[in-house]
Amino acid sequence: MNFNSLHFLIFLPVVLIGYWLLPQRFRWILLLAASYYFYMSWNPWLVFLILGTTVVSYGAGIAIEKSSKPGMRKFLLAATLVVCFGILFFFKYFNFLLDSVFSLIRLFVPEAESPALDLILPVGISFYTFQTLSYVIDVYRGDFRAETHFGYYALFVSFFPQLVAGPIERPGDLIPQLRAEHKLNSDDMEAGLRIMISGFFRKCVIADSCAVFVNSVFSDLSSANSLAIALAGFLFLIQMYNDFAGYSEIAMGAARMMGIKLTVNFDRPLLATGFRSFFRRWHITLTRWFTDYLYIPLGGNRKGKGRRIFNTFVVFAVCGLWHGANWTYVIWGLYAAFFISLEILLKTPLAKISAKLHINTASAPVIYAKRLIFILLSVPSALIFRSTSIFEAWECLTGLFSGAGFGIGYLNDAMTALSMSAADIVQIGLCLACLFLLGNFVFYGGNGMPGLRMGKALDGQVITVNVLNRVSAYWFGILAVAFGWLILIADSDASSFAYFQF
User: Fold this and answer.
1) Are 81 and 153 in contact (CB under 8 A)?
2) I want to staple 4 with a disulfide (CB 3.0 to 4.6 A). Which of 82, 164, 224, 494 is the partner?
């Protein structure tokens, strides 16, 4: 079920009421049943896939911990990786591989047709696969003791708020919280509601509003001028951020109302001053996963600058492929890797030039300039990510860098391609204003109120949530209106979250 559906708006309160009425020792049963029901609402048969992955990783974790032979431990780890990655590859990438191979064959045999299996892409398979693998690897490394209670481990894999699109939780962060006894308190309930409202607003208002204009341009790229394509790229960047951050916040809010604190997945990425800064702020749990389980094992930055850049390209190529079975995602990853590598190479020379010219790199003008440059460089990246094929991506990029013009006619043509009226421009302006206010609303308020810990960012720094000590009648009124509005807009045609496909 979608978070932005009437189904979920009934499902969540029922689960919360049952959760808080049940004794602690029975809560895991309710949450596990609710999580499997939540997942089965898309396709009942997919439950066997997630159950199989759960059983394999659960057994592997116990066997690895009990084994005293290094060779056997490595074999068990390798076998688990092969099974879990094998399932992920078969359902997500097998047809992609076949199509890529036959595309090469058709260069020599034009009449060759690519066979394809009729496979259903399981919702959230990349997320729960990575979560199970983090558990097995952490047990192998000795960073986490194997979970012997199958019910709690199955709940760790399938916990419904973050099952479909993350955050990708580490076992040491989530399993102890699932086992802990939580008591109902107003702070958790208010913080959870506040975060959920922010998430719904991001998705239902900001992301879905931007999607209308982006889709209008991509439906007829040939008639869109460079300004329209550039604006579509910028709006898609806003759309994807709020779509995914919206899901993450709804997940965090729902879990928080059960006393469980999920890891913060976004830290205002549009305020990044470069690509390295961006990926420390964007999809933090995925960045942490690739850092810990791929980048560092490859050598990280310990083997010289050349090896560091090579590792960066490998990681981002894989990261791109993780997002979907399409070469456009790989190109998107390589695009990011190029600019990250460029930042690494230019860091020392730019620092020397700044010192020589007495430029304060921490000053506001310099920071704003860096942010503007980053946004401009992100537009082509967003267009590549949005494209459904290499040919469409090429059409976007050629259109972006050709046919620039000036004047009212040029502007009117761009607005026509976007299907944007004067009222829509005002609407987007309000959305952007709200975008910068939401962070203060949920996470970054400077009102001096006491904070509640929500999890750890990539660098280990704790991000806090500022909440009021008590909720006033005025605040309850806002909540009532907000949820009434959400019920009105939540219907069977509610748009799904974009990251469900990953």
Assistant:
1) no
2) 494
Q: Which residues contact 342 (CB under 8 A, 6 or more apart)?
A: none
Report whether 399 contacts 178 (CB < 8 A). Answer: no
CB of 77 closer than 8 Å to CB of 136: yes
Tokens at 502, concatenated? 């990953």
List residues bridging with 451 in a β-sheet: 466
pLDDT for residue 442: 61
The mean per-residue pLDDT over the stretch 66-78 comes to: 92
Q: Which two tokens stand for residue 306?
A: 């050349």
* Candidate list 149, 182, 283, 323, residue with the active-site label: 323
What is the SS3 assignment for 48?
A: helix
CB 425 within 8 A of CB 232: no
The pLDDT value given to residue 217: 92
Q: What global pTM score does this model have?
A: 0.85
Structure tokens at 112: 């060759």
pLDDT tier for residue 400 given thresholds of 50, 70 and 90: confident
Would you give the DSSP letter of residue 211?
A: H
List, as own/partner pairs, every contact residues 447-451 make where C-beta atoms lie below 8 angstroms and the sequence separation is at least 24, other chains included.
none
What span, in angstroms and rounded, lies between the C-alpha atoms of 375 and 269? 11
Q: Is 19 helix (H, G, I), strand (E, B) or coil?
A: helix
The contacts of residue 477 (CB under 8 Å, 6+ apart) are none
Continuous H helices in 142-283: 150-158, 171-179, 186-200, 208-218, 226-256, 275-281
Interval 292-319: pLDDT, tens? 999 999 988 888 888 999 999 999 999 9
> To which H or E segment does residue 322 belong?
helix 305-323
Is the torsion defined by CA of 489, 490, 492, 498 positive or negative? positive
Tokens representing 191 are 């913080």
Average pLDDT, the chain: 84
Residue 474 CB partners (closer than 8 Å, separation 6+): none
56 CB-near residues (< 8 Å, 6+ apart) = 80, 83, 84
Per-residue confidence (pLDDT) for residue 475, from 0 to 100:
52
Grouping H, G, I as helix, E, B as strand and the rest as coil, residue 70 is helix
**pLDDT of res. 479:** 53
The owner of tokens 């949005």 is 386
CB of 244 within 8 A of CB of 497?
yes
Residue range 230-285, pLDDT digits in tens: 999 999 999 999 999 989 999 999 999 999 999 999 988 988 999 999 999 999 99
Taking the C-alpha atoms of residue 314 and residue 203, their distance in angstroms, rounded to an integer, is 32
Q: Are 200 and 6 contacting, i.e. CB atoms less than 8 angstroms apart?
A: no
Q: Are strands 462-466 and 451-456 parallel, antiparallel or unpaired?
A: antiparallel
Determine the pLDDT at residue 502: 59
| Annotation marks residue 283 as catalytic | no
